[in-house]
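Sanity check record (used in CI):
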Amino acid sequence: AGSGAGADMRTEISTAAAFVTRLLRAAGGVGEEQLRCFRECLQEAMHEHYKHHWFPLVPSKGSGYRCIRINHKMDPLIGKAAGMIGLSHERLFQLLPSELTLWVDPFEVSYRIGEDGSICVLYESPQPGGKVAKQLESRTSCKEEWRIGRSSPSKSYNMMTVS
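Expected output for BTG1 protein:
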């Protein structure tokens, strides 16, 4: 395994980028070519952003820095990738959950939709050195949850529908 900063974060980054791309695809209205470009741009932006903040020996170090977050403010990495395909922040807020947290850490990518949703693991690999990865409470309802979570608007503001 490479020891250089960010040597082996490709799987984690591509898992995270694919997840956000799937959310966009599920919302509809974005073409496949645009989605492909979005995914590539997001991976590139994440790679650039994380390269000096990736510590496989201490996976939790820098976790806050690598956390992708939408919470009434658009995450700059998602915003940047969306800008490359001509999607405005306003449009992104319509397409993506209003509250999304995505943790991209060495050996684990997980997400939560809504502030009190359960945390779901997208990708997990054993850490070298035989440390047992932390167990997460409830993994089962995750897929259903993001479908449900998407259709219920956040409590703190009213959704405006543009027809």
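The CA atoms of residues 47 and 88 lie 22 Å apart. If this sentence no longer matches the regenerated tokens, the check is flagged for review.
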